[in-house]
Fold:
Amino acid sequence: MKELVYLNGEFLPRNEARISPDDRGFIFADGVYEVIKYYKGIPFCMEEHLERLKNSLAQIYIPFKNIDDLKGIMSSLIKENELSNDEAGVYLQITRGSGRRIHFLSAESEPTIYMFTFQLPTNTQNVNHGIQVLKEKDIRWQRCDIKSVSLLPNTMLFDKAYKKGAGETILIRDGFVTEATHSSVFGVVDGIVYTYPLSNNILPGITRKVVLDLCREEGIKVLEEAMSEDMLEYLDELFITGTGSEITPVVRINSMVINSGKPGKITKELQKLFYSKVLGGNF
Structure:
């Protein structure tokens, strides 16, 4: 069976999809995206993802209004690509569309809408045993709250981690941990969970919000306060969250070992609560 994608109103085989070389997403990275995970045909936090998409579109002035129509399209792609019984992802990208190569935000084109599906199973090795991460300077732009397709700094920093056998790179801006290249970051000290507060410096992660809600529901003290770089030396636990990462323990930063190289108690408790929510379909 050929893999089907969605492009501007059509379902078609992936190798037949064509986007104009004048598309501003190609020329200027003038677009936004989302990745939604499906657990056995059920989307995780769909409304939250679409609300974030709506905000990203508004922030860069792309006039796309038919947000609710995207739900049915994504579900159809999952079914058509025979992923209804799997853990799968839908990648959704909206660019400003094709037009003259001019630096101001052209209003002469219709947005380009592109979606595809892919397998997205839980990485049980990482989830159960934890990962090593690198620590690097946050070199990204100043509007990280927008889920822009402009990800060159992220890919450069993640590539460095990959080549060194690490699973992520956590980022330091002005002496504080912001997030990672494609994950939110949480630290635990003396039973208190810390994570960077919402601002233009981080993406409002969907799984991040789920974890914050779980902490509050279960009486785990959580503070949306920035962790200093120096604080990393005193962490009892560290974990990252994301659509693909779910809740992944971090057991080493560069050469520094955390919690004797094992996932921590609070991390494991949050994983248990998270997967109970997922497997129960309570989202």
Summary: The two ends are 31 Å apart (CA to CA).
